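worker-03 picked up job from queue 'complexes'. Input manifest follows; three sequence lines, order preserved.
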Amino acid sequence: MQKNPSSAPLVDIQNLHKCFGRNEVLKGIDLQVFRSEVVCIIGKSGSGKSTLLRCINGLETFDRGKIVVGGQSVETANAHALRELRKKVGMIFQHFNLFPSMTAGKNIMLAPKLVHRRSPDECQELAMRLLARVGLEGKFDAAPHQLSGGQQQRVAIARALAMEPEVLLCDEMTSALDPELVGEVLQVIEQLARDGSTLIIVTHEMNFARKVSDRVIFMHQGCIHEQGSPEDIFTSPRTPELRSFLSH
Amino acid sequence: MTTLLTLLSCFLGTLFGIACAWCRVYGSRRPRLAIGCFVEFFRNTPFIIQIFFIYFGLPSIGLKFSSFPAAIIALTINLGAYACEIIRAGIEATPRGQLEAAQSLGLDSRQIFTRVVLPPAMSRIWPGLTSQLIIIMLATAVCSLISTEELSYIANRVSAETFRQFESYIIVTTLYLLLSICFRRFLNWLGPRFIFGCSPIGTAR
Amino acid sequence: MIQFTLWDIVRNLLISIPWTLLLSAIAFLGGGAVGILLLALRLARPRAFSLPIAAYVQIFQGTPLLMQLFLVYFGLALGGIETTPMTAASICVVLYASAYLTETWRGCVESIPKGQWEASASLALTFTEQLRYVIFPQAVRLSVPPTIGLLVQIIKNTSLASVVGFVELTRSGQMIANVTFQPFLVYGLVALFYFALCFPCSLFGAWMERRLRVQH
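worker-03 finished. Artifact:
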């Protein structure tokens, strides 16, 4: 995999602050993610991991700081800017959020048709290709409630990929799955990583994070407490908080 | 008078509704069917006809009521029918685990119903029930048509005497609006305070 | 005293049923159209219309239909417009229905899980696209049972139009009862007729609700 650290970062977050009421959830985050990098964010519940991810695609507002993705800055008050941003950023949710009134194929086809204005035939072909890519060829006409949790999440991944995003955000994408279904989703993500996609993943699956990521970030109480390569983080943790987190 | 009508019929109607709901959930087949027919009949006919039937119709078979009792009866039965369905939905949504816990503590069925099933059920359906109670309060206006001396009847009398129909109706309508807002606030205060302890409205598990 | 047969009574009541149905249809269709318009306005950004529409709903839900009918009837007369009972009743029930329908439909839209909004936003859909392709299809499904319930309510509430003189089932029942001195029979029949109109709708609503629940 070609990495070019001297080129400009794809995702550039500077001094990000966010409060929920009086509770400061993000206390000055500085983070850069480069093209084709796979970054995993780990940490306890409440450390601000999901909030950080949701700020990157504009689902949460932030109080101070700057986020720029692929040249597009995140301006949550500007609907047009948000739309442009979301063409570059895809998101996978913990609870899949497939649209229940559409089949799997139609779920994937919706956004390219409306946003990129592709023809229906193009979209259908794209959807079938992506379903095959996530291992679900033949499920084009399946309704979401007929699919298992793992299958639904894979459709959700295909749906996000249909927009050809530059960076894909994964918010605890296996936390809502039964243990035996987790593997099939992780396999898809691993393949994406091998294909050179830029991924920012919030996860509790430590072995997965160790295997697939180029960099691991440990968040604690709203700050980036430690970051480094998987070996550094998992085999030689420096801070006591990280050590106690990993020992559970 | 409107307030008295409302409070009395709401109280009686809710009790009646709870009784019907209990019957429909726990009763044997015949009472369940009978209550079911009764409920469907009163939910699918207009209130004005129900009250006309009670006030004008029943006297010809010997049951004569003056306007206040007739109004109370009509309002109570009407509310009972709707309340039965609303409360039944609340009761049937009780998680099985709570029944099992209550039984394993040795409570008898009456205690289980009044202490374990009913309070969370009431908090679950409280928004729906308050809406229905407000509808009953507004239905007291229809009672004016059988000469019950409540707000709308006064409005009619005043407008007939002064020929200023529009003004008197506007005033009365505004009064109803204020009454309904106050009534809803009152009910939202009453529920948590006396009826269902600390379970939050609508979300009891 | 003239003797009236049962058939006389029934026949005269039956003649007035189409008027009940007509008023109900006007109320439902007209109220539905206004209701959708109000809903769209309420959901649109900027949220300028949210408060006035909420007030509108509160007024119609917080006051008796009886009073609303009187106000419309006498109000129009005061404004110099010659109204028939039919017109006054129609206008009033359309507004009344629109308030209840828009509030119910708004409840359905708001009960759609936030995740649906987030997922469609993350796919870069505009607000209108979100509503049209993701939110409304689900909201319509959810709204069928309560909307049918409101239809039943509308049919029953047309009975109040009798107070402004509109001759529908209730009014003709009143007139016949006064003439025949048999209120028990007449009002009993009227109740049965309303039941025959409303109960099938209620059953249909319950059936639809079961069907829609199974699908999800």
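worker-03 released lock.
The two ends of chain A are 33 Å apart (CA to CA).
Chain A touches chain C through 29 residues (CB under 8 Å).
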